[in-house]
Write a structure and sequence with these properties.
2 copies of one chain form a homodimer. In chain A, a hairpin with an 8-residue loop joins strand 11 and strand 12. Chain A has an 8-stranded antiparallel beta sheet, with no helix packed on it. In chain A, strands 8-13-21-20-17-15 form a 6-stranded antiparallel beta sheet, with no helix packed on it. Chain A has a 5-stranded antiparallel beta sheet with strand order 3-4-5-6-7, with no helix packed on it. Chain A starts with a helix and ends in a 6-residue tail after the last strand. In chain A, helix 5 crosses helix 7 and helix 14 packs antiparallel against helix 15. Chain A has 18 helices and 30 strands. With about 725 residues, chain A is an alpha+beta fold. Chains A and B meet through strand 14, strand 16, strand 17 and strand 24 of A and strand 14, strand 16, strand 17 and strand 24 of B.
């Protein structure tokens, strides 16, 4: 429940709401809204007051910096900037003096501490060292939150206190983050976004135009770096952030909050219209890049991160007050949270008024790169975003330091689960008892390596031989994308990940009659003039129920698959040599559904069933299964596979249906330069995924398969054949 | 929503309700109830009509038996008896002729098929072969459901149809299940309960006293076998079923349903009063033996089985109409289901009337054996049954063929998770693609073996050397049980599991000041006059974050721990020799909480970190971690350990607290015949678990530890010491 003092206090809140981020505050019907605040907002006030009251009871605690992420001083300073921020907002919404006093007292303590600080004792390297925290990034985050809390109370302070805090906390911190950390500040990178946002917002609050200018235009004010340049370069025209969804979520907060401040103080800049509304596009893309609310975990992603995160509470509220998009209300409803600004109040009231509509999750192509020409991420969806299907083709560029070597990688979601998986980052974020909460060594030796993904590995080396700088220079080419219902297709080519080898992967989400769920088809064509060893891993989630081919199992001593590039982390459970598409399959169960991966075996190859966790003396890795298709001594090669969901398992009713594959067979055929993948279901239904690789959307292609003539138009299509006579 | 025809039909339903199981039907306020049926009942009617209508549309399908569990004919015949049962109940509740006709038509098809049936082609052995199903048990289940459906429509059939179905289906099936399957029918075992229930209910419906008599008193009517004898021997005085909760759940249905029929047709037997109301006790015990609604998975249990199961929908409704216990209503609410008898109607109405109260889950001791002297299962609880703690001490007897060799085994639940785990059965129930859905070979080679549990293994052999018959002859002795809040303790001794070795285990759930959750203490005292190798495994769920001692890791080739008795299924990840209680610990994370297991190392021993999954070429086993304390060449020995839950991890807030152990150290000391386990928290709090092993509840004991004199009374107690001066 909302405590009594809030009911009273909120009456007086409206006049002071204007300092918050939105230019629409005047439309927030304040009286009605604040006289009887909507539950979402009231709960947020309640949550904030509980937290801040607890912090106030504990008294002002501003320890000398000592610990890395997860350690005591790290967490205390994080608690402090959260408290400064929320106490400031509580003061603005309630007018209660105690909150203003608390913000003042905490900041006065920082005013004593900050000038005494040098490099952090737990820094990883002096370049990136913060003052309050072990890395400069955390100092910037401290500033972004703290300056907002300070803004809310600054006018209420004595001139002496105000000057002391201005000079000894925020000016010094702004100087440290800008001229004092020129390398970080001038990056085109989310670390720089946090820094520029903190410095720029400080400039607005202190009325220091210099700080605002260098934040917006870079230290030399040329505009070659700084916040505006970041909005130009860090997002693609589709609002995709090159590091991937996890860091897009993270980067979004300073973008949205600083934009709000710019809009308020400098409306003539029309920041939200900048670059065709890129910031709002970015917010929408961030939401689209989720399944069941969780971010697609490719690149250095912590897998448990969902839309229920402070960055998105801010982003959704700010974006809603701009757009009034009712789909954003349903996201806020799922989040169950908002922020204490007038944007949050507006959102909470409209949600309570029943204005929410489902957010339109749909199949989309997200181009990568500032000009949108550095590959793309394709998301093919069917059904809803919580229990339906989502096929993700990661055809985007390297994504800088947090990128993985996973060109043309894919993931698959179904029935609320990630079926074909991405390991994400090897890190237990802020868990002190696990390597201090930092990235684990296995993030480099496993999580980033190609074999840890669902992409082509040549000669047991990772893409670009594991060199991120080389990777940033080259991108895949997205060649085709179709969201046609029932036959959705994405195709891309990667050249240069390996010298002399290029590969084109076509992934399709196809509806096949007689199957309960759509089927994934995967045709990977490799071209090389010299012979190589090819490995195509598929990491999956589930427990094997049937393997179609004979296995040579490592039953009483478990060998390691290789020696480097991630191979040293794979235990070999079994190997086998399936000889046709009838027996080249593995079936597994996950929750109440079965899955069968089926492929056309390589003539020169074998299949390897393995599990992560070898050479891991500290138990840093999760242990997860993988199926590897291997081709040895091959030049050109085609890997043709399907993934099928089938049947159901009901433990309560003790009823199981179709626990075995519903596919009779698959067959690959090359017709000129085209690839044909024929899929025959047990029901007798036959269809073909036909790929011409011809970009001309008007051109019609013909081919003969299974004695039948098929025609299709354009790059690729799903063609039904006559029903087999059984 | 409930279809219109039901609203009308239900008006007429009351007169025909009497045939259902309960003698309280007259009290079900029929008019009010059926005029506006409560949602739970209306939904059940709706669910039934949807299912039966689908079956009716598909037409009568009674295939010649062919497949084992999970196969087509198996599932179809299961669907059929479900349809016969529900259609009959729909007819009784709605009076709609179509339902009566459908039941008739299906049973007429069986009347043609049944006389032609011999042994089932997929039988495991001729003795247990069914006619309709691969095992006789399923035939009995078919009969229990079908006879209820038949009862509801029988009077409405033509004499010719009635005679045909009586003679060619139910009399023949009853003959097959009784005189035709004398071995099964005469067992004291749940298979026999299903058979006697089916035969006895058929006797009542057909007015065949002979069938009723042999069902109640056994084939020779001596009362040495049969249903009544089963109620005397299969449950302990506390209503515990010796095979364990999973099979107790399964066995309960025929007990409750047949009892209902006996009560209706033969009220003078006062079946529910029989043996001090054992059947209702059994129902309550079944519910108490769950955590978060899931059955404690010891012995041959399928782990995904919860209270949401048909047996309990029947049991809860029948028991509620007897007892009107409002706690049962909250169970029904959690189940979200009920049955279509007047018992179900009464329950649904009272639930809708807001009469539900929380079911009183509490710490309980469940004696085992007909006289309650064959050991016990102790459940120590704190907090609620969904997120609180539950410490389970399995001190019960072998439990016949489905029992595991796990004397004095334990499990621990916390925060909604099973922390110290029991593997349950190695079986994918009814999953055709996994060994036909039958018990896997690894159920014998792993799941039943002692090393697969959290109990003492001597010389790498299982209890009773893996001989279940030998195990059934001997039981543990429960020596002490105290549910005193904050210091709950259970202690038991096992003699004869190994020649010349006996062991006493004291498990305690203790509140220690400064810790967020209670702490588990485990003192296992082994006595032997000859030297042995002792292994004490602890199977846990979670991901290791810190190990306190140096590890010798199997990083690049993973050996197997042993050659037999389950050891062949364990991969060795690492071994180490912790030398004191400061470094003898392992910390892991599960969901948002951390756990640290800490123990006093064996002088002659080592610690082994291993994982299940070796010698498993078919991928039949789940891969789960285990910590093994090993003592070599030891006679008497004491294993003193604690398990501590600590800290929190919040991925959304990126906040982690206390990811490392909050315990400074533990210390074991023997004082005369007593064992003292001192626990010191980082906060400085010190306390002692003191065990005198003296049954006299009045006797006071004294001991000196850490320079302090402590006193306690009785078998065991938790004694606080003065706070350490740090």
């Amino acid at each position: 429940m909302i405590p009594k003092f809030l009911w009273v206090a909120l009456w007086g809140a409206t006049s002071s709401v204007a300092v918050a981020g939105s230019d629409l505050s005047s439309q927030a019907e304040p009286a009605a809204a604040t006289a009887n605040p909507a539950p979402l907002f009231a709960n947020e006030m309640q949550r904030a007051s509980v937290f801040v009251d607890r912090m106030m009871e504990a008294g002002v605690v501003v320890p000398v910096p000592k610990d890395p992420g997860g350690g005591y001083t790290h967490e205390q300073h994080k608690q402090n900037f959260k408290a400064i921020n929320l106490a400031g907002q509580l003061y603005r919404n309630t007018g209660e003096q105690q909150y203003s006093d608390y913000v003042r007292d905490v900041l006065l303590a920082y005013a004593e501490l900050y000038p005494t600080l040098g490099e952090h004792p737990a820094r990883k390297n002096s370049q990136g060292s913060g003052r309050i925290f072990w890395q400069v990034l955390n100092d910037a985050m401290w500033m972004v939150d703290s300056i907002q809390g300070y803004e809310a109370v600054r006018e209420s302070l004595s001139e002496a206190d105000r000057k002391n805090i201005d000079d000894n906390v925020f000016r010094k911190a702004a100087a440290f983050l800008s001229t004092g950390s020129p390398v970080t500040f001038s990056k085109i990178h989310n670390h720089a976004t946090w820094a520029t946002a903190g410095v720029g917002m400080t400039g607005y609050v202190l009325g220091d135009k210099e700080l605002v200018d260098i934040a917006l235009l870079g230290l030399d004010k040329s505009g070659k770096t700084g916040f505006l340049r970041q909005t130009d370069l860090l997002f693609s025209p589709d609002g995709y952030y090159t590091e991937g969804p996890y860091y897009q979520r993270f980067a979004l907060k300073p973008f949205m909050i600083f934009a709000g401040a710019i809009e308020k103080n400098d409306p003539s800049r029309k920041i939200y219209e900048h670059r065709d509304g890129i910031l709002l596009k970015a917010l929408r893309s961030t939401i689209q890049l989720t399944y069941d609310g969780y971010f697609l975990p490719f690149n250095d992603a912590i897998r448990d991160k969902s839309l229920k995160t402070n960055e998105l509470y801010n982003g959704v509220a700010i974006a809603y007050s701009k757009t009034r998009d009712p789909g954003l209300l349903s996201i806020a409803e799922w989040q169950g949270r908002t922020i204490l600004t007038d944007d949050g109040l507006l959102l909470a009231n409209d949600l309570a008024a029943g204005k929410a509509r489902p957010f339109p999750f749909k199949s989309l192509l997200f181009s990568d790169g500032p000009e949108g020409n550095k590959g793309a991420v394709a998301v093919l969806r069917q059904g809803d975003s919580t229990s339906g299907q989502a096929l993700v083709a990661k055809n985007s560029s390297q994504g800088m330091g947090h990128g993985h070597f996973d060109k043309l990688n894919w993931q698959y979601y179904d029935n609320g689960n990630e079926i074909v998986t991405d390991y994400g980052a090897a890190r237990f974020l802020n868990v002190e008892s696990k390597f201090g909460g930092r990235y684990l060594p296995e993030n480099e030796t496993w999580a980033k390596q190609t074999i840890a993904h669902n992409s082509l590995v040549v000669d047991e080396k990772s893409h670009f031989d594991g060199d991120a700088k080389a990777g940033d220079k080259l991108s895949p080419q997205q060649r085709f994308f179709s969201a046609k219902p029932g036959s959705q297709i994405s195709s891309a080519t990667m050249t240069g990940a390996y010298p002399g080898v290029n590969f084109t992967r076509t992934l399709a989400l196809l509806n096949v009659e007689g199957l309960g769920q759509p089927l994934v088809a995967d045709v990977l064509r490799v071209k090389s003039e010299t012979a190589h060893k090819y490995d195509l891993p598929m990491h999956y989630s589930g427990h094997i129920t049937r393997v179609g081919f004979d296995l040579k199992s490592s039953v009483d001593a478990r060998p390691v698959l290789g020696t480097a590039n991630g191979y040293q982390h794979l235990w070999v459970d079994a190997t086998g040599k399936p000889d046709n598409a009838q027996n080249a399959f593995v079936t597994w169960i996950l929750d109440d559904r079965f899955y069968t991966a089926r492929w056309i075996p390589q003539v020169t190859g074998e299949a390897i069933l393995a599990e992560s966790g070898a050479n891991d003396p500290q138990f840093n890795l999760r242990r997860e299964p993988v199926i590897i298709q291997r081709a040895t001594d091959s030049k050109d090669a085609v890997f043709a596979s399907i993934l099928e969901a089938h049947g159901s398992y009901d433990g309560a009713e003790e009823r199981t249906v179709a626990s075995d594959s519903q596919i009779k067979s698959i067959r690959h055929q090359q017709a000129g330069s085209a690839d044909l993948l024929m899929i025959e279901a047990l029901s007798g239904e036959k269809s073909v995924l036909a790929i011409s690789y011809d970009a001309d959307p008007m051109k019609t292609h013909r081919a003969l398969i299974g004695g039948e003539q098929i025609n299709w138009t354009g790059y690729a299509a799903h063609v039904k054949l006559g029903r087999a006579t059984k």
